[in-house]
Amino acid sequence: MEGSKRNSTVSSPPDGGGGSGIGRAVCQRLASEGASVVVADISEESANETLGSLPTDLRGQVHLAAAVDVSSKESVKKLVTSIQTHYFQPPSVCVNAAGITQDDFLLNMEEEQFDRVIQVNLKGSFLVTQAVAQALVACGAPKGSIITLGSIVGKVGNLGQVNYAASKAGVEGLTRTAAKELSRFGIRCNCVLPGFISTPMTEKVPEKVINKMMSLVPLGRIGEPAEVADVCAFLASDDSRYITGVSIEVTGGLFIG
Ligand code: NAD
User: Which residue intervals are annotated with compositional bias (Polar residues) in the record (predicted)?
Assistant: First the structure.
């Protein structure tokens, strides 16, 4: 597949959650670098909207949109198989951006709310990371870069998000462990920890809470999806070739102590 402008091989990254917010920005950024991008999302309509926004003028790029439920092993396997059928190789870059919230205080949270958030955010990251890594190892690919989306909330906790915070702390542990196990195959695994980013996910947050949060951000503003995508592009590229197993905070300085 094509190399990017940065002389990396960011080819056909499947972006779980690519239909919206940060995932969409990642797809746009990697496509602008010359990658062929597979936009994967549980909402096929959203994935297609992202697909329609991608540049295609560079080096014969071929982008695809696909429906996937990252919490289903069968669905994830089907996605990776169909990518290999289309591109004759597994993706060299994978960004796990699918995620959900189902907020409630610990005292009120239903078991189903806890389970669903863990299934999508944590189990989904496991299934996608495992399927992509298995495909890369099986075909003897020389290198790969797998990027997960954690959250600063996984480190510091957040009122009403016991399920989400637990899932994101788990994503960091998963990523560090995957980095240790997969480095001998040339596969790097890193986690990005956004703070407060302007996406449909944060549109649900009451204005009062947003204003309070903003007063705690040293850089004094909410982040943009493109600012998280920039860090993902760095981790996808050879510019980060000696970096694995790390978590990078993209928070405007929120909670730096
Ligand atoms: P978003 O809601 O805009 O996008 C999430 C996408 O995931 C949606 O397109 C949705 O359809 C998709 N999705 C949901 N369930 C899925 C499933 N089972 N299978 C496949 N796709 C599924 O959210 P966002 O703000 O862009 O968040 C992206 C990632 O960044 C998430 O993991 C989120 O937890 C994390 N994050 C976001 C923020 C923030 O402030 N926005 C902060 C920290 C971490």
Answer: 1-12
Q: Match domain 7-248 to its CATH number in 2.170.190.11, 3.40.50.720, 1.10.3720.10, 3.40.470.10.
A: 3.40.50.720
Annotated catalytic residue within 164, 171, 179, 251? 164
Once rounded to an integer, what is the mean pLDDT over residues 51-69? Answer: 91
- Determine the distance separating the centroid of ligand 1 and the alpha carbon of 188, expressed in angstroms: 22
134-160 pLDDT, tens per residue? 999 999 999 999 999 999 999 999 999
Instruction: Give me the sign of the Cα torsion angle 3, 8, 10, 11.
Output: positive
**Pairwise CA distance, residues 93 & 50, whole Å:** 18
- Shortest-distance atom of ligand 1 to CA 47: 9
For the CA of 223, the closest atom of ligand 1 is 40
Residue 215 has pLDDT above 80, yes or no: yes
Pick from 2, 50, 59, 46: nearest CA to 29: 50
What average pLDDT does this structure show over 196-208?
A: 90
Q: What is the pLDDT of residues 170-183, one digit of tens each?
A: 999 999 999 999 99
Find the helix or strand (DSSP H, E) in which 166 lies: helix 162-182
